[in-house]
Amino acid sequence: MTFVWAFVIGGLICVAGQLLMDLTTLTPAHVMVVLVVAGAILDGLGLYDPLIEFAGAGASVPITSFGNALVHGAMQEANSSGLIGIITGIFEVTSAGISSAIIFSFLAALVFRARG
């Protein structure tokens, strides 16, 4: 049942993003920001962690989990380190994913040529 719920919840998040693109004038970049902010708000309200517990990868893989990670890291470090923890917590939690994206993008740019 875990796989079914992961598929359903992850699919619903994707459907929400697709509906935002199809039914509004929002660009994909705007929709991405909306989904990240939605994940951040849900984590701030304490609702995203129970969603991850319930749906597993269905909630932890979509872009909404990036907003969740930002807020979660900031709140966790703010509790232990004070005001400066807000900044350091964001970087501590998300640094591996962002670093990987930069490194793999650079490697892809070395291998492939851009058209134009």
UniProtKB/TrEMBL annotation:
It holds the Pfam family SpoVAC_SpoVAEB. Keywords: Membrane, Transmembrane, Transmembrane helix. The chain crosses the membrane at residues 27-47, 54-71, 83-112. Signal peptide: none annotated. InterPro entries: Spore_V_AE (IPR014204), SpoVA (IPR005562). This is Stage V sporulation protein AE. It comes from Effusibacillus lacus.
